[in-house]
Amino acid sequence: MIQAEQLHARILEELDMTREIEDEELTELIYRVLQEASSEEYLSLSRKTELGKELFNAFRKLDLLQEFLEDEGITEIMINGTRSIFFERDGRIHKSDKRFLSKEKLEDVIQQIVASSNRLVNEASPIVDARLADGSRVNVVLEPVAVNGPIVTIRKFGKDAITMDQLIAWNSISKEISDFLAALVAAGYNIFISGGTGSGKTTFLNALSQYIPKDERIITIEDNAELKLQDIPNLVSLEARNPNVEGTGAVTIRDLIKSALRMRPDRIIVGEVRGAEAIDMLQALNTGHDGSLSTGHANSTADMLARLETMVLMGMNLPLPAIQRQIASGIDIIVHLGRLRDKSRKLLEVSEVLGYENGKICLQSLYKYEEEGEKAGKITGNWRKIHEITNDQKLKMAGYDQEGTCDDHN
């Protein structure tokens, strides 16, 4: 049976490598080779179409990876060397019957991806984070670190930014909490979004951004530019940079935060805090940049505070009480997201940071999701209001009451 790699070799033999080949000319060559192959062995029309697409993707796009990227139902792609490819659809992981036939071909695709993000990955520097043109997040780990490598993991993001109305329709958040958070964002509360891997932190931050007043100057800071903030005219997007081949030229999140403070921002949005940059983010929150947003990995709101303490210590040797006071004064609200057993993503808790007292940061739960059972394999439950917000000064100054309702509309 004729395989794509045999046809690939034939096309390579006929390609004129001394000049640039247009897409139309390449397509004609591919289908001419397919016609010749079908005269040697019967190929159905559907098989010809499939082979033609595979061959075009191999020469012009990201080889067989392109098929997974174009499938809008797939949210994650996991390539485990040349042995297997897995993908996530509807929250569940499936094994593909496709695989890269050689390590060299997979490495070519990897280099194509990282080069487009101005990144570098090789045996000396075998781990890299990059992104695709559509904003999808890519992580690459090469040999010798990955024993069965190369390993590629791609987190896909939808072409269109997800709105809060869509999250409500998916039952990821209630209308009441959505309206409350909208008021908090508009009133300038500093909000930190926590959650585990795949819980939807970036998606939720994007959705919250629709409530930022349109006359403000917003600066986003990320390792890889993934945020799709909605309808913000005065937007500056900054992206960190890895060291070059000589090991110089790196621009870190910390560098970008410090630079952003000189760019006259109204709000600073740090896509994700992972390390020592936490101290710079907290200093920004404590120097008048109300309404700033960020995300971080944690298992609960309390765990997020503990992780922030650890991350600050990574960047500066400060007494723990001083760090806790910085956190307590800088962050107003923590929104915790989670992924439940049925693979659904939900807002699990909204907590208010009350301040620092008796050697600890005081938290107060405002809303909490409570499970009630299961129906047709789906978890059922509701959000319960636990407390009214205590620090309501910003809400009042912005014309809202404790419920997040604008007084002008009452």
From TrEMBL:
InterPro entries: AAA+_ATPase, P-loop_NTPase, T2SS/T4SS_dom, T4SS_GSP_E_ATPase. Residues 187-341 form the AAA+ ATPase domain. Pfam families: T2SSE. GO terms for molecular function: ATP hydrolysis activity. It comes from the Bacteria. Belongs to the GSP E family. PANTHER family: TWITCHING MOTILITY PROTEIN PILT, TYPE IV PILUS RETRACTATION ATPASE PILT. This is CpaF family protein.
